[in-house]
Amino acid sequence: MAERSKTPRHVAIIMDGNGRWARKRGLPRAKGHEMGAESVRAVVRACRDAGVKYLTLYAFSVENWIRPKEEIRGLMRLLRIFLSKHEKELHDNKIRLRVIGRIADLPKDIQKELKRVGRETEAYRGGTLVLALSYGGRAEIVDAIRQLAGKVKKGELDPRRIDEETVAAHLYAPDIPDPDLMIRTSGEMRISNFLLWQLSYAELYVTDILWPDFREDAFKKALKEYAHRHRRFGNIE
Ligand code: FPP
Q1: What is the mean pLDDT of residues 78-91?
Q2: What top-level class would CATH report for the domain 10-136+178-227?
């Protein structure tokens, strides 16, 4: 089914370039992440204004655990601050918070906060903010296969009945529609293990703007470009 696309229902973002933003200014990397957290707030607001229903942000990848301990501590600290500062805004705008990834890898207090805010916002329908934390696309597929294999072993699932829908139903957030638009900041033309299954038909948009500089205007520009794309989903004109 070909489709004239307008506003994407789901936008996924690889927020890249915090380190480069800081280096260019002779500042510590932590400052880049701090300003990046401000871009997160700006883009959440821009989604609400534009009518984008789902926003998935790649906040911390499974690969990010190899970064220096100090930087990881700083990112976790920012996440705590974000959760406490941003919570009211989620309630005010009826936005629910979801998380995808190997959440058990995160510090216990953050896991608890994510669970609490997730629970307290779960009935909201103003929009959905999905944070990908300790997330990897391959890890997600591996986790789904483990569940499926477990069901086969227990005799609950016939392997011949496994199709794309069955696999999709065992991913981290099966109820969330696939992204329509994937934005990557700071110029790299890579998917970097983000939503490997779900990005199959997404439109890709890469900008040279570094994440801390990516605010409402830059986001609107991406939406405008998306509105001009013609999605064909494998079909002809
Ligand atoms: C990439 O920049 C960004 C990250 C690894 C983390 C993203 C985190 C934030 C935007 C801040 C906190 C998030 C939330 C949800 C509050 P990089 O360090 O890889 O930049 P570089 O490639 O220029 O070094």
Answers
A1: 94
A2: alpha beta
